[in-house]
Amino acid sequence: MAKSALFTSSIGKKFLMGLTGLFLISFLIVHASINAMIWFNDGGVTFNKYAHFMGSNLIVRTMEIGLFLGLILHVVDGLWLYKLNREARPVKYAYNDEGTNSSWYSRSMAILGTLILLFLVLHLANFWVKTRITGIEQFGVDAEGQENLFAVMQAVFQSPIIVVIYVAGCFSLFWHLLHGFKSAFQTLGLNHVKYNEAIAVLGIAFSIIVPIVFALMPVSILLGWVR
Predict the structure, then answer these.
(1) How many other CB atoms are there within 10 angstroms of residue 66's CB atom?
(2) pLDDT tens digits, 155-191
């Protein structure tokens, strides 16, 4: 009964949001680190090496399944929480200056999360489907004979429209993380007066650096900064 309440109550759902949020944050760190390998500017050899390891390692592939499940759970739980909050207060107070109590992005997590979800659908269609399902034989191999995942990126990011969509998605990710990073620690009870400030600073830095890395990747390829 207690376990059921943990996952059905509003508090339980917030706890689940925080837990899956931290899991996805750890994924963003790994993913951004691998993407940064393109700036070795060696024809994608270094990037392909690490990307191939991530795609062929059994442990990583198993974690990939957990990642997808965690992502779906995070999105569904977030939308359900948004629904519960709306139902809890169907009529707004006669006067409620929300701007003085919270930031606009903390009140817009559902919208930002939905935009990020649409961005991820595009991302999976452009990369995951090609590298996991349809194959990438048409892109050949790199200078060291590895599957040329970098060539897939080059082909996708020749479209200015797709690059603009990616940058917009990263902009949404920035605002989502700006609230979500700190909120995840608070929800899980990992905050403490001694290191709350450090968490806040780390959260701001993470929210800026990671989306910039992701946004610069398609921009660098489109503009020919990396080859």
Answers:
(1) 11
(2) 999 999 999 989 988 888 888 888 778 777 777 777 7
Locate tokens 């994924």: which residue?
27
Q: What is the pTM of this model?
A: 0.75
* DSSP per-residue string spanning 155-191: HHTT-HHHHHHHHHHHHHHHHHHHHHHHHHHHHTT--
Q: Is the Cα torsion angle 32, 117, 104, 23 positive or negative in sign?
A: negative
Q: Structure tokens of 59? A: 């442990």
- Rounded to an integer, what is the distance from CA 204 to the centroid of its chain? 15
Placement of tokens 């996805």 in the chain: 24
Give dist(CA 51, CA 149) in Å, integer: 7
Ranges 54-58, 116-120, 141-145, most confident: 141-145
Residue-level pLDDT at 93: 46
Give the integer Cα–Cα distance in Å for 127 and 31.
13
Q: Where are the domains of the chain?
A: 9-88+106-222
